[in-house]
Every structure is written in C-alpha cells, then in structure tokens.
Task: inverse folding
C-alpha cells in the first residue's frame, strides 16, 4: 500500500507547527526542549519523504546528519536543565528574568 | 599530494589544537597562562599557513572524490579564515588579564574556543547548505557553552538558557529551508542551486522564496536583526567579557560570510521575493537598535544595542547587493573589519577595567576617568569616535562605503535614514566621552593609575592606532594596507565567488 506523499507533508507541517506552538506557549523548560526536538524531527520527516520522491538517497543522508546534531543539542539542553534546577529549584521559564530587569546580580 | 591538501591545513591545525587542549586540560599542574599561549600559538600558526594562500585560487573543490562539491577553497573563504584566526588570537590576548583574574577558566574554555573557530572556518568554506548548517550548529553549541561558562553566576546561567532555547529554535528554520530547497531542486550544493534558480527560478518562485526566507531568518536571528533581537541584550550582559567580545566581533563576521555567499546566489538577478523584506528589516533594525542603545545605563548593554545598529548598517548594504550595487559586497567586508577593530578596542578596555570589579560597568563608573587613566581614556575615546563614524577614523570610511552602495542601488531613503541614525548614535557614544573628560574626579579616588605594560594593553593601543591609520593613512607605509588596500582585497575576494 502506498500513501500519498501529501499525507506525510501534512503530518510534518502539523508536527512543526506544534513544536513552534509549544516553544511559544509552554513555560516548562523540559517541554520547550521537547518542542524544539519535535520541530527538528518534523524536518527529518520532510527530508525522508523528499528522498523517496526524488530517486536518490541524499535526503536520507541529511536526515542522518540531523540526528547527530539533534543528539548534540540534547546533551547540552539536559546539562543546562540540570545545572539550572540545582541553582534555582524550578524549571519555570518565567523565573529567569533577572538580566532583563537589570537586578543586582 | 601536498598541494591538494594545503587548503585544509589551517582548519586542520585549529581542530588538532582543539583536541590537544581537550586532552591536556585534564592535567592539573598546567597553568592557565600555558593554555592561553598554546591556543594562541595554534591560531597564529594557522594564520601563517593561511596567509600565503590568499590570492592564489579562485574556487577549487578540495578532494572532490571524498567531499564532492561541499568544501570550496577560494579567496573569499581564505580572507574570512584570516579574520577568524586573527580575531580569535586578538580576543584571547586582549582578555589575558581578565582571564587571569577569574578562577573559573580552565583548559576546556580554550578547547571550546577553538571548536567555535573551527566551525566558523568550515562555515566560510561550505559550498553546501548541509555542511553550512552543521558548521553553524558546531559554532553555536560551542558558544552556548562559553556563554554559560561562569557556572556559579546566575546571570551567566540565564544568558546561556535564553541563547540555547532561542538559538536552537531559530536553527530549526535553517534546516527547514534546506529541506525545501532539496525538495524543489533536488540538491543542496550552493553553486548547483544557483544554476537551478537561474533557469527554473520563475516556475517555483513561491517555494524557493519561502526556503530562502527561512534560511535568512536563522542568519538574521543570529546577527540580532530587530524582530529577532530580544535575546541579544541579555545574553551579552550575562556572558563573561571574553565571550561577549567574541560574539560581538568574530561571530558576526562568520555569519556575514554565509549571508554574503547565500545572498549573492539567492537575490541577485533571480526575481526571488525577499530583497524588499531585508530592506524593511534594515529600517526596523536601525531604529529599534538605536532606541535600545539610547535607553541603557550599563555599558555592556549599550554596546550590545549598538551592535544591533551596526548589523542594521550591514543589512542596508546586503539589500543593495540584491538591487545590483557592485560596491556593496566589498563595503560589507570593509565594514566588518572596521567594526571588528573598533569593537575589539572598546570591549577590550571594558574587560580590562572590569577585571578588578565584580559588578557590571555603568556610565557612572567612567566619571572623571581621564584624570585617573589618561591613556586608556584616550583609547576608549578613539574607539567610540570610530564606532559612531567620526571622520578620520576607520568607522567613518566603513559607513561611507555602505551609504555609497545604498545610493548606487537607488535606495536614497535608506541611505538618508542610515545617516540620520549615525547622528543619533553620537548621543550614546559621546555620552561616554563626556563622562570621561568633562567631569572632575572625586577626591578620594583621584590618584593616577600608571599605564600597565602588558600584552593586553599594548594590543588595545595597537587597535586604537589601526583605527586612526585606517581612517587617514593610505600609502604612507608601502607594505601595510590602508583603506584603499583593504577595499581592493575585499573586491578580489568577492571576485573569486562563482
């Protein structure tokens, strides 16, 4: 059974939009991180679909490289989240406004 | 064999240096000073290898059997390599005193620094959007960590968090644009894309324009153009001084390297939509950046705001490229150099003075500075004059070429706005000069500090001399390039692009 490629693009668009929505509206840092991963993986889906539509493997290769980049970002994000939780005991992004308000640090 | 590998040598040296530092950073007995000098030796060695390569090639694919058409060695990339290597070495040496007086720096700091420079160099060489994305992420990830390097300081944590969340959010747009280009054209190699856009551009106008804009959003975000600028002031304020200086000067140069390469193929004679948007964003950036810079009392935030404005001037020239101005691309490179020299001077003096205090510097701290530190005040005044574009400094010539290119492309209103904004910027730069020179010093703090002879202060002095030299000297010293020499070097580099 073959699925119309438009369906894949629809899913990818939905995932990417959900990711943007999550980064903008959610306050928890872990959920924001998951939303960014969702955006990047939506792009991976687009690349894989294009790779099937074009008769070449270039898109799949790019998706493979992307997974490496995503893993590097994951390591950094988790490290930051752990460090910040140790300092502040909260993961609410609204708690981090000291620089913007020019408070004494 | 050696000649085919020669273009790789500078990049290889930098990455080898990064790994060497990573290995020896576990040895506790090595002093911080040794790490600093090892890093600088690697950077200068790579600089010395890259220097004779300039002017010898116009576009050679290195090892095409292995890398295909992804790694391009041309004069354009070599010139940017030289700027990154020289800029990195300068940043470290000027901040030597600051690094020495803080206890949280260690070997990994320098390793990350070299990784960031390696990423920038591959970014300048990238002839394919995917390696460009990976280089951009490599640079960004190294700089995210550097931003949060003072890990027990809440401001540094917050700066890293903001930069990381917003930076990776914007980074996703770049790869989305790449994916759309791949879907439409079937390739991500920049030169093949250029050929595709020239032939089939009008058939896929909407898709190609959207993809180009997605990629431009990432670049504009990292530059700090106005709708995407919200992170910039906080991140600059929170990061340690050497990192702020690195982001404001060297990182900005790297981003314009990829922006120029992409802009020349996307918007010159192609009919893609987007050039008007860049013009519009240039207006927003100039006005919004000035507004932010005027309203600050901390000097680091003021310089951050002014770096947004300087990005705006370069966006003027970028949009002029799309309208066919031939002077615009060399003008951007000259402006990058002039902004780099002036801002390294200004940030260098701030970091030298901040090394002794633990709070952010404000305008008030500079009251009567000219009585206490006359030489440093003079250098600061020269940097400020150059940043505001005062005649007889290199900053004036940079702005002159930018406005000339805007006029050449027929954007008279934009050039007029740029000149007006340059006058506005006099307010926040000259406020500092007035603070230093027009106030008497208070009784108890009035003793004169002697001028400390150190590599940092001497290099700051050298920057001030170059600022003046670039503005007035042209051919007084035959082997040293003046302003005319720099602009012809930039033209040669742009000419090497396909």
Result:
């Amino acid at each position: 059974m073959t699925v119309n490629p438009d369906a894949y693009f629809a899913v990818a668009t939905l995932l990417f939009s959900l990711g943007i929505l999550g980064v903008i509206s959610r306050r928890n840092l872990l959920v924001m991180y998951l939303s960014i991963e969702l955006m990047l993986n939506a792009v991976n889906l687009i690349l894989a679909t294009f790779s099937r539509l074009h008769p070449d493997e270039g898109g799949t290769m790019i998706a493979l490289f992307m997974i490496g980049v995503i893993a590097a970002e994951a390591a950094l994000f988790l490290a930051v989240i752990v460090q910040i939780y140790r300092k502040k005991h909260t993961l609410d992004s609204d708690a981090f406004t000291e620089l913007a308000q020019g408070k004494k640090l | 064999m050696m000649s085919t590998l020669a273009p790789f040598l500078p990049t290889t040296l930098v990455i080898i240096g990064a790994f060497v530092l990573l290995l020896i950073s576990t040895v506790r007995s090595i002093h911080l000073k040794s790490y600093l000098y090892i890093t600088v030796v690697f950077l200068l060695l790579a600089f010395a290898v890259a220097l004779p390569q300039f002017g010898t090639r116009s576009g050679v694919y290195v090892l095409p059997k292995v890398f295909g058409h992804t790694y391009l060695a041309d004069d354009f990339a070599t010139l940017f390599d030289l700027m990154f290597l020289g800029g990195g070495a300068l940043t470290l040496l000027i901040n030597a005193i600051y690094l020495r007086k803080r206890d949280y720096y260690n070997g990994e700091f320098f390793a990350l620094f070299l990784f960031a420079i390696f990423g920038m160099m591959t970014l300048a060489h990238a002839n394919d959007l995917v390696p460009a994305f990976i280089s951009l992420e490599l640079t960004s990830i190294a700089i995210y960590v550097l931003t949060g390097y003072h890990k027990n300081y809440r401001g540094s944590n917050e700066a890293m968090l903001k930069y990381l969340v917003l930076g990776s959010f914007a980074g996703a747009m770049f790869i989305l644009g790449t994916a759309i280009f791949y879907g439409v054209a079937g390739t991500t190699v920049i030169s093949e894309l250029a050929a595709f856009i020239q032939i089939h551009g009008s058939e896929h106008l909407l898709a190609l324009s959207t993809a180009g804009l997605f990629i431009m959003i990432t670049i504009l975000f990292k530059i700090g153009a106005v709708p995407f600028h919200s992170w910039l002031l906080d991140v600059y304020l929170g990061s340690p001084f050497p990192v702020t200086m690195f982001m404001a000067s060297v990182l900005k140069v790297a981003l314009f390297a990829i922006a120029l390469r992409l802009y020349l193929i996307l918007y010159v004679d192609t009919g893609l939509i987007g050039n008007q948007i860049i013009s519009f964003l240039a207006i927003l950036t100039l006005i919004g950046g000035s507004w932010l810079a005027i309203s600050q009392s901390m000097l680091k935030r003021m310089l951050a705001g002014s770096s947004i404005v300087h990005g705006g001037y370069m966006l003027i020239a970028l949009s002029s490229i799309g309208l066919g101005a031939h002077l615009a691309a060399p003008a951007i490179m000259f402006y990058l150099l002039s902004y780099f020299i002036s801002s390294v001077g200004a940030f260098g003096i701030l970091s030298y003075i901040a090394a002794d205090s633990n709070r952010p510097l404000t305008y008030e701290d500079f009251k009567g500075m000219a009585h206490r530190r006359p030489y440093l005040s003079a250098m600061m005044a020269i940097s400020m004059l150059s940043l505001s574009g005062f005649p007889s400094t290199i900053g004036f010539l940079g702005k002159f070429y930018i406005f000339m290119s805007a006029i050449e492309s027929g954007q008279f209103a934009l050039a007029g706005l740029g000149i007006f904004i340059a006058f506005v910027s006099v307010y926040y730069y000259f406020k500092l000069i007035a603070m230093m020179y027009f106030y008497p010093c208070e009784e108890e703090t009035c003793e004169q500090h002697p001028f400390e002879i150190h590599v940092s202060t001497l290099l700051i002095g050298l920057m001030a001399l170059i600022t003046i030299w670039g503005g007035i000297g042209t051919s007084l010293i035959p082997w040293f390039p003046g302003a005319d020499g720099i602009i012809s070097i930039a033209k040669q580099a742009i000419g090497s692009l396909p």
Q: What stands out?
A: Residues 1 and 10 of chain A are 18 Å apart (CA to CA).
